[in-house]
Every structure is written in structure tokens, then in C-alpha cells.
Design a protein that fits this description.
Elements (H helix, E strand, L loop, with lengths): L14 H10 L3 E3 L7 H9 L3 E5 L4 E5 L4
Antiparallel strand pairs: 1-3, 2-3
Amino acid sequence: MPKKKSTYPAPADHSSLCLQYLRRCGGSARLCTINFSLGVIQTLVNRKLVKVTNTGAGFFVELDEAK
């Protein structure tokens, strides 16, 4: 029996938009100011594209330039 297609669109992966945002912000941004979900941030961390650092003044999301 073939699988039915959903009439609802699948949720879009906004990880590329988040990477674009970080590039425009100079490579890092405060975690509390980012309007992307924590799931998107976690996906980018798992892919080793970004890293989250604690500077003592808050958490920052930074592009991981070690490619």
C-alpha cells in the first residue's frame, strides 16, 4: 500500500538562514538575540558549523571557521 502524501507542508529547515544571519552579524551573535529555534542551533552545532561559547557576559553563537 503506497504511503499517503501529507497535505501539510513539512517544516522548513532554517539552518541556512541562521548561517546567513551569523555571517551578516560578523560571525557571532548573542544567543538571546537570535530568533531561530534552539533546534536549528543544535542542528548547526551537531554539523560542526557553529559553536556556542560562554564569555561570562552571556552565551554567544559563533561560526566555526575550523573547516
